[in-house]
Amino acid sequence: MERSEWSEWNQNEFEKVVRQLSRTDPDAEVIDIDAEGLRALPDELWRFERLRELSIHSEYLDETPAGIGRLTRLESLKTLCAPITALPPEIGLLGELRELDTCVNELTHLPPEIGGLRRLRRLTREGARAKELPPEISQLSDLEVLVLPSADLRVIPPEIGRLQALVKLSLAATARPKTPSPSRKRCGG
Description:
This protein is mostly beta strands. The protein has one helix at 11-24, and strands at residues 3-7, 30-34, 53-57, 76-80, 99-101, 122-124, 145-148, 168-171. Helix 1 links the parallel strand 1 and strand 2 (30-34).
């Protein structure tokens, strides 16, 4: 398995390297990008048809382009510490995706197309500001791990109960607890 890494490059340098790599090594299977100044993913990235793992760490990247849907062999997608606000509907085209990690970003919801990720086993959104989960989450029949520890979920959707393969569910309670009424007995009292 071939691996490519970049760190602390500016946008122009990054685009040149990806363009060159897409010509000289289009069979790369793993790309790990740690580029602080990266503001956009170049279109050349979608040429890596054999890509299985894509990890992106950038404090300025605010979108995942629709081109992501062209990486049909992708098994792992990680967008870490990027202020991404939405995932494109094309995310549902990643039929081989087994791991989706969108930690520490600005995502408030997942698109309904998430239900198309039938092989997804792990969905991690630590530090994300999720307010709701789409009902289509119930279509993730292989989902084993669902991690939303700092989500602002308004309601835990009943669809989670349909996830037969789920072995780990991590949620955070962010709502204020109600104070007990004086007429009720307190626990242990």
